[in-house]
């Protein structure tokens, strides 16, 4: 019985995802929910959250937290948009955007590992600081991105009929899974989060591992900002609002321990898609925003509570 319960808890995100799909299929299947286009739409609109969640998996698996990803997402989008308007080629502008996220991730990591400030406080402060910068730089005005190549590659384009946003998320899910499961870095991340003292004694530079995970998180958030810009063909200061909470929820739903040491990229992907499916289904059902938030929040709490293994 115990092993069966453990199996169900380990894979609870997939059971809940299946339950969500069945529920919406039965209740609103005749309203366009059960169509290939709608499933593509769910995967497409969830791509940015998925990508940030993959990197957040590494951060949480190492025993830390990053609340600045939403603000970094907007910063990258605005940096890229302003660079394109300033006459830079799209690939140079995109590099500027990615570097801005990498720089914030580096700053977060150094403040946590070198000065010893808890990551929750560091990234909470950085979230506010960068969001203020996002608003100040543009005075809350949108920045148009008219470059068709950029918009196709990072947002509106398709390859063999598959939206580029889906390709980005699936590709990075595969890369993240391989890195976490089959590389020395992935094993060291899990060791650092599982028992930092033991990891230190075994020769792992845990501070450097944590620093790398924050840099990875900043880079992923920056890429998400580029994808938002490509999809909307504009950059806005409010891109990524609430992204940090959705990403953390997807990671925890996917089976990653909030205390580190245990993680699953595939589970995180399923968690992100489940959140996107819930939001999509509730919209089709005609619920207003407040009702969507209440129902989605309740479902996530239920799923996370069930997935937690009882302490012995």
UniProtKB/TrEMBL annotation:
User: Major location, coarse class?
Assistant: membrane
Q: Which CDD domains match?
A: TM_PBP1_transp_AraH_like
GO MF term set: transmembrane transporter activity
- The superkingdom of the source organism is Bacteria
Membrane topology qualifier: Multi-pass membrane protein
User: Which UniProt keywords are present, listed alphabetically?
Assistant: Cell membrane, Membrane, Transmembrane, Transmembrane helix
- InterPro entries from the entry? ABC_transp_permease
Which Pfam family name is an example for this entry? Answer: BPD_transp_2
Q: Name one GO cellular component term.
A: plasma membrane
The residues that cross the membrane are 12-29, 41-60, 67-84, 90-112, 119-139, 159-180, 211-231, 243-261, 268-287, 293-308
Where does this one sit in the cell?
Answer: Cell membrane
Protein name per UniProt: ABC transporter permease
């Amino acid at each position: 019985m115990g092993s069966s319960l453990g199996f169900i808890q380990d894979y609870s995100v997939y059971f809940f995802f299946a339950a969500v799909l069945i529920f919406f299929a039965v209740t609103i299947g005749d309203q366009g929910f059960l169509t290939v286009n709608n499933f593509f739409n769910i995967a497409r609109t969830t791509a940015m959250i998925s990508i940030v969640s993959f990197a957040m998996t590494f951060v949480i698996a190492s025993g830390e937290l990053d609340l600045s990803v939403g603000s970094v997402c907007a910063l990258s989008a605005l940096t890229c948009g302003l660079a394109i308007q300033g006459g830079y080629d799209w690939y140079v502008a995109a590099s500027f955007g990615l570097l801005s996220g990498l720089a914030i991730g580096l700053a977060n990591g150094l403040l946590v590992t070198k000065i010893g400030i808890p990551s929750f406080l560091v990234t909470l402060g950085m979230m506010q600081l960068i969001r203020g910068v996002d608003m100040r730089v543009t005075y809350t005005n949108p920045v148009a991105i008219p470059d068709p190549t950029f918009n196709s590659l990072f947002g509106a384009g398709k390859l063999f009929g598959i939206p580029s946003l889906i390709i980005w998320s699936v590709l990075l899910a595969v890369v993240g899974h391989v890195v976490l499961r089959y590389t020395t870095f992935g094993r060291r991340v899990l060791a650092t989060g599982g028992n930092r003292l033991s990891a230190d004694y075994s020769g792992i530079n845990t501070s450097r591992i944590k620093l790398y995970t924050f840099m990875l998180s900043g880079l992923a958030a920056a890429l998400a900002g580029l994808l938002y810009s490509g999809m909307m063909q504009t950059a806005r200061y409010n891109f990524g609002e609430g992204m940090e909470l959705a990403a953390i929820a997807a990671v925890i739903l996917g089976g990653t321990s909030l205390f580190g040491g245990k993680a699953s990229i595939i589970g995180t992907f399923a968690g992100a898609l489940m959140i996107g499916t819930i939001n999509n289904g509730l919209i089709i059902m005609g619920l207003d925003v407040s009702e969507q938030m209440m129902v989605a929040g309740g479902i996530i709490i239920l799923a996370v509570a069930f997935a937690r293994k009882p302490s012995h």
